[in-house]
UniProtKB/TrEMBL annotation:
It comes from uncultured Rubellimicrobium sp. Pfam families: DUF1223 (PF06764). This is DUF1223 domain-containing protein. InterPro entries: DUF1223, Thioredoxin-like_sf.
Length: 233
């Protein structure tokens, strides 16, 4: 089942009222997936649909704990596995699995549960944030800025780079014989600093190459994502 039409309808039914003191909060979707997981292809297809939607930042984090069963995922990173495990510890969970979707750092959903994903997207579609986060390119650098403001808790500043699309022929493991098209494949994830809001946030960081970049402000844990900005080029 393709989700683009259904999800677009679900989100377009909302007309959020955003005050001057608020900014629209994109819906950040993290999919934990693996080329070696037989249950993952439908979730991978769903993420491809979400990647094209306005107001959604869709990220595919390939984990490495399925590599042992016969197909090493070329996109997998131990850091992605560690991030998923940290989410599990924060929630008091003892296990991780694929496919799993986490929305705005808060809601944990089985990646193949179409209706649950739609419901959570709809619930977060009118989210706002008081943080005026701005990210922009200047040559090979990325400028990250936000004015000083009171915060409930200091926020971690994350820089994410991703590959918009790649096709993979899988010749081993549970998905042997499939040619998969993957979208928004996270290639690097860096925690830059922690910001407490007492001073303006102002960072200039290297961002060479043409891969899109995403900046996230997230409560430690990892917890809720409080602001997000995407730079396409």
């Amino acid at each position: 089942m393709r989700l683009l039409t259904a999800t677009s309808i679900a989100l377009s039914t909302l007309s959020p009222q955003v005050t001057l003191a608020e900014q629209k909060l994109p819906v950040v979707v993290e999919l934990f997936t693996s080329q070696g997981c037989s249950s993952c292809p439908p979730a991978d297809e769903m993420l491809a649909d979400l990647a094209h939607m306005d107001g959604v930042i869709a990220l595919a984090l390939h984990v490495d704990y399925w590599d042992y069963i016969g197909w090493p995922d070329g996109f997998a990173s131990p850091g992605h596995t560690a991030r998923q495990e940290a989410y599990a510890r924060t929630a008091g969970e003892r296990m991780v699995y694929t496919p799993q979707i986490i929305v705005n750092g808060a809601d944990r959903i089985i990646g193949g549960d179409t209706m649950a994903v739609l419901e959570r997207l709809h619930a977060h579609a009118d989210g706002t944030t008081p943080v005026d986060l701005r990210a922009s390119r200047e040559g090979d650098d990325l400028l990250i800025e936000a004015p000083a403001m009171p915060l409930e808790t200091p926020l971690e500043v994350h820089l994410v780079r991703y590959l918009p699309k790649d096709d993979v022929v899988i010749t081993g493991g549970e998905n042997a014989g499939l040619t998969m098209s993957y979208s928004n494949i996270v290639s690097s994830w860096e925690t830059l600093t922690t910001w407490d809001g007492t001073e303006p946030l102002s960072l200039t960081v290297p961002a060479e190459g043409d891969e899109p970049a995403v900046v996230l402000l997230q409560e430690p844990g990892p917890g809720r994502i409080r602001a997000a900005s995407k730079v396409d080029h």
